[in-house]
Amino acid sequence: MTLDRARFVATVDGGGTLFLTCAQLDPRVRPARSARVAEWLALLFGDDVDRGLDWLATATDLERPTAALYLEGPRRVGKGLLAAGVAALWGASVTGYADIAGGFNSALRHCPVVFLDEGAPKVSGGSAFFRSLISETHRPLTEKHRPTATLHGCVRLIIGANNADALRIHEDLTQADEEAIGERIFHVDVGPEAAAYLEGLGGRSGGTRRWVHDDDGRPGE
Asked: Is the C or the N end of the chain the one with fewer CB within 10 Å?
């Protein structure tokens, strides 16, 4: 996920390793400022707006891990909208948490943005899975009917929920375990103001309809 072209690294014994590209950024995306999006983000992140904008600004640097973005708040504040907008940088839809929590994680080949909406599925080794998902710079790539490869690059996890228990990590954790999980989460307490702003724009049927993609499928606002 961190290469812009495939390459082959030869070894002295005549073999080598083939590195293939995946989850490439959409070349049609160009930086531009939207006053409406900026105002919504300010309402969404509230007092954490500077940290939130830093998180967004570094989201595409997949060589480095970053904290999971946990948006806790009422419905219609735009939690899914933000996840879809970040995923659109790669010209793809978000990768569902459930899609990689099972036996295969090949969905990450298309989009490194993982979205957990409301409740996480039960995962074997729940807290360990979460910590590795956030912290690892490479992981086994498991695909059905294909040999296991290694996926290089960090994921970007966005959690959208109306409570503080979306991860559903119900384990006997030590204080050190809890601190390790907490260090990997950027929690934002989203107020209703963001929902009121989006509603005033007309929501997805109105002012925000082209925020992620325009009607031709090209990058939106």
From this structure: C
Which residues lie closer than 8 Å to 199 by C-beta, 6 or more apart? 76
Say if CB 59 and CB 49 are below 8 A apart: no
Assess contact for 97 and 80: CB atoms under 8 A.
no
List CB contacts of 163: < 8 A, sequence separation 6 or more.
72
45 and 53 in contact (C-beta within 8 Å)?
Answer: yes
State which H helix or E strand residue 9 sits in: strand 7-10
Using CB atoms within 10 A of its CB, is residue 135 exposed (0-12), middle (13-18) or buried (19+)?
Answer: middle
Q: What is the pLDDT of residue 125?
A: 62
| Residues 173-215 pLDDT 10s | 888 888 888 899 999 999 999 999 999 998 665 688 889 988 7
State pLDDT tens for residues 110-122. 999 999 987 666 6
Which amino acid, residue 137? T
